[in-house]
Amino acid sequence: MSTSEPVRHHPHASTFTYRYGKPLSAFVLYSSLALVGLQFAWTTLDFEEQRINTRARIVALNTQLSHWRAVEEEKLRLRAAETGGAVRGDEASSGKSWWAWKS
Hints:
Blueprint: H1 16-83, H2 89-94
């Protein structure tokens, strides 16, 4: 090359796409990857929170169920003590088994 020869540039070197296309596409790619990663993390954490809340609700409902069972057993025990052991009048007084009480 001689010094009198002009330096050749790419014909589209001054266009916006040629100058900023690669950095913009890299930015869009990395921001999309970051968004997908953050959304996955949020979904995972939200699922874990829902699972913990559901387990806590199940424990609370089981505790409440145990309480109401104890209350009903106490009521049945008191009723049996009042009636002398017969809890249900029809079945206990007639001497019939539970499957033949309708006959």
